[in-house]
């Protein structure tokens, strides 16, 4: 079975979860990277014989608007979709149900949903090194259950948790800055999913465009971008209570 793996994964955590699911389901995987701002997503048109994994991170309990916009350009044409949201051990709230609606509007048929865990993209002390071996065991079991459902030609949509209307979308407002060690190589600007960093002067960031995805921090080859220490401490305190207890992966099938 061929699998399309469609991911928005600025820092790599979401892709780790999607990769595990995909490799457990198939050895023929076609990758579509939603973080690539130069890609023409409208060129992708699937069929009702195709199976896809559509994976996004949860940003304050919602689907990132950038990911939603790019998914909506893909023609699902009845392709069977396994939707996945990945969060940093706080909560995913309305992310899955919103992703269900986005994917359905694009013409996909949702047959299962998964909430996975990955290291928090801003405060790395939460869900450190996740997904871990226990997570991968869960994902392996989930993939088996989903594969069995597909083999039965059961394309029913499970009940997926979340609220409509969705919770209000929040902007984290955490904008990484270049340190003195920045040599203006331009890697961060080239890799930014929304083009918020000036190509000619990477120390210049458009705060209105920045989605606080932290891709520039992880992609910088010189570790020259960081978050203001005071702001990071505030975010840490806000997350402490909700993130301190380990959450586990969940399957809706």
Question: How would you characterize the overall build of this protein?
Answer:
By secondary structure, this protein is of the alpha/beta class. It has helices spanning 13-25, 65-71, 95-105, 133-151, 187-191, 215-219, 229-243, and strands spanning 2-7, 28-33, 51-57, 80-87, 109-117, 177-178, 225-226, 250-252. The strands form 2 sheets. It has a 6-stranded mixed beta sheet, with helices on both faces. Helix 1 (13-25) crosses helix 4.
Q: What helical percentage do the residues reach? A: 25-40%
Low-confidence stretches: none
Spell the H/E element sequence: EHEEHEHEHEHHEHE
The N- and C-terminal alpha carbons lie at a distance of 19 Å
Question: Which outline best applies?
Answer: globular
> What structural class results from the helix and strand content?
alpha/beta
How can the largest sheet be summarized? 6 strands, mixed
Strands of the widest sheet, in order across it, are 2-1-3-4-5-8
Strand content: 15-25%
Number of strands: 8
Count of separate DSSP helical elements: 7
Short description:
This protein is an alpha/beta fold and 253 residues long. It has seven helices and eight strands, in the order βαββαβαβαβααβαβ.
């Amino acid at each position: 079975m061929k699998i399309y793996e469609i991911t928005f994964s600025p820092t790599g955590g979401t892709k780790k979860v999607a990769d595990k699911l995909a490799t457990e389901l198939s050895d023929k995987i076609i990758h579509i990277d939603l973080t690539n701002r130069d890609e023409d997503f409208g060129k992708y048109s699937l069929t009702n014989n195709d199976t896809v994994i559509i994976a996004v991170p949860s940003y304050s309990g919602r689907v990132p608007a950038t990911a939603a916009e790019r998914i909506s350009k893909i023609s699902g044409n009845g392709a069977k979709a396994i939707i996945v949201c990945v969060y940093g051990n706080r909560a995913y709230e309305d992310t899955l149900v919103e992703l269900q609606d986005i994917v359905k509007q694009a013409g996909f048929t949702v047959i299962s949903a998964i909430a996975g865990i990955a290291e928090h993209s801003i405060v790395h002390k939460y869900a450190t090194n996740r997904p871990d071996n226990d997570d991968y065991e869960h994902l392996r079991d989930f993939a088996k259950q989903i594969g069995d459902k597909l083999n039965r030609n059961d394309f029913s949509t499970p009940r997926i948790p979340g609220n409509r209307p969705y919770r209000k979308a929040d902007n984290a407002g955490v904008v990484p800055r270049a340190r003195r060690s920045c040599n203006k190589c331009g890697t961060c600007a080239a890799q930014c999913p929304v083009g918020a960093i000036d190509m000619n002067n990477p120390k210049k960031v458009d705060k209105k465009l920045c989605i606080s995805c932290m891709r520039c921090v992880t992609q910088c080859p010189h570790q020259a971008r960081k978050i203001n220490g005071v702001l990071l401490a505030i975010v840490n305190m806000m997350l402490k209570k909700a993130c301190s207890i380990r959450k586990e992966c969940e399957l809706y099938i």
